[in-house]
ABC transporter domain-containing protein (Ridgeia piscesae), 276 residues
Amino acid sequence: MHLHETVFLQKPRIDSRSEDGLRPEQFIGNIEFEGVDFIYESRPELKVLDQVSLKTEVGKTIALVGPSGSGKSTICHLLLRLYDCTAGRVTVDGHDIRDVNVKWLRQQIGVVSQEPVLFDGSISDNIRLGREGATQADIEEAAKMANAHNFIRRFREKYNTLVGQHGTQMSGGQKQRIAIARALISNPRILLLDEATSALDSESEAVVRDALEKACKGRTTIVVAHRLSTVRKADVIHCLSQGRLIESGSHDELMAREGLYYNLVTNQTEVDLHPC
């Protein structure tokens, strides 16, 4: 007697391989969250986002700050459609992102995270992952925008230098700049910077921050930050707590208000001045 196993392949709710959905001919990069709620199916008792409404326009930088678990990274995950919001909607240029082709949407967004993932290959290989078919000239142009070209040229093998498994042959600042180049090579209209400098020492942070400031020009940028000194120049800072948007404004406006943002900045400054 032969036993046969039947495998049922369930189509994912958010399918990055699907050809369905809008692919607007012109993509500007205006983003809006309208009354967004989010709850993980596995934790229905916990509301991760609660009626969050915010928007930003092309060329502007917004920052998301707040205590751990306040919902900052979840906002980025919803924009990337790793999840869909439970209520409300997220739009890009007025289109509900649930109506937009998933793969196309993600191609418009460059992501730089706290711990960049580099693969065991050359520097060129890692940057090229950001855009299929990129030429060597494209790779070097992206590296220049990311303040990476000069240090790469100092290696004996230059762009053919192997980064090692998980990028072990590169310093933290070098890995981050390679990741920025990979994010920029597709010329994304939106940049998501999720704690992009928090794991770096002060010297590397200054170089990477300069690269990020250049990368943000002309793009819609969302910065998730724990180190609040990195968000002072943002056009609008949104302060979250327990999934709710508590206050919004520029750094000076929020400091003058002496609310949650003021307390976060003051407490962090005291810790920096008097480390344990």
